[in-house]
Amino acid sequence: MTAVFPIARPSRRQVLRGFLGLAAAGPLMTHPFTTSAQGVTLPDGRYYDAYVPAASKESQFYHYTCEFDAAWVVLATFGHDVGFDEQIGIVGHDTSIEPWYEMGPNGWVIYGGDILTQFSGNYHDNLLARTTGQAMMPIFQQYSLPASHVRDRQGIQETLDQGGLVWMKATADFLQWEPTTWITPEGVELPTVLGNDHAVVVMGYNDLGVVIRDVLGPTSSNWERLYEYDIPWETFLGVFGSQGSDGIGVLPPGTESKPAGRVVEPAPAG
């Protein structure tokens, strides 16, 4: 097989610094633990069946650390300011193989480390660097936060109804994706996306869709990207499925975790 190395894209941190005049990533706003408001109308007129005011910050830790930035949002909301070094120390960093991709007989394939147990790839330079919810779970357990895998709309709504947040794999801006298979050194095959892998936090919902916390913010790919935005259910569930419906429902301290709902099958790219 011939390795095809990923094309570099602009540094998210550099772009944000230029746009916002920031010297480094730092908290924009953090909220002490608060239960979700159910049936709430926000000052701007938006209505949600459940809404948890999630913490936020203006930038990611590094170029390709979105999983850890999304975890920071969840942890900070519930009272734990946990930096990147501590998080990746819990998850682990698989450097045995630098992820690369090629077109296989059945579509795009990424060859990388064991993302079921660790983070794989150079988070400074390789846009293929990533991990999964299964590998991220120990972070929330480390801080005694009730956490369970969430695979469908029912599980997401139940988590938010209890005042929790949902960490999830997505695509940048919930845009269309190239269906891709990640293959670990052991030959395990996992559904993923090619170049627009991302991770965000679900912080509210209503009949129309969900509200997302995304610390990526404005970049050259989307100068109008907000730190909080709405996504319709149909779009959301399609993107969620593209990453194997990879979500973690994290509840407030002291809350008893409920089991997740049924599994949503990955949706085809449109």
Structure characterization notes:
With 270 residues, the protein is α+β, with helices and mostly antiparallel strands. It has one domain (12-250): Cathepsin B, Chain A (Alpha-Beta Complex), CATH 3.90.70. Helices cover 21% and strands 27% of the residues. It is built from 6 helices and 16 strands. It has helices spanning 12-20, 66-77, 84-91, 133-142, 153-161, 233-242, and strands spanning 27-29, 37-41, 47-51, 56-57, 93-94, 100-104, 107-111, 119-120, 147-150, 165-171, 179-183, 189-193, 197-205, 209-213, 228-232, 247-250. Strands 2, 3, 9, 10, 13, 14, 15 and 16 form an 8-stranded antiparallel β-sheet that branches. It has a 4-stranded mixed β-sheet with strand order 6-7-11-12, with no helix packed on it. Helix 2 (66-77) runs parallel beside helix 4 (133-142). The longest helix has 12 residues, at 66-77. The chain is globular and about 50 Å long. It starts with 11 loop residues before the first helix and ends in a 20-residue tail after the last strand. Mean pLDDT is 84; it is low at 1-35 and 259-270.
Main sheet overview: 8 strands, antiparallel
Structural class: alpha+beta
Which bin fits the share of residues in helices?
A: 10-25%
Number of domains: 1
Which sequence of SSEs, written as H and E, runs from N to C? HEEEEHHEEEEHEHEEEEEEHE
The name of the CATH topology is Cathepsin B, Chain A
Number of strands: 16
Overall 3D form: globular
Average pLDDT number: 84
Which residues sit in consecutive blocks of at least 5 with pLDDT less than 50? Answer: 1-35, 259-270
Strand content: 25-35%
Rg, nearest Å: 17 Å
Q: Can you identify the CATH superfamily? A: Cysteine proteinases
Assigned CATH class: Alpha Beta
Distance between the termini: 29 Å
CATH architectural name? Alpha-Beta Complex
* Tally of helical runs: 6
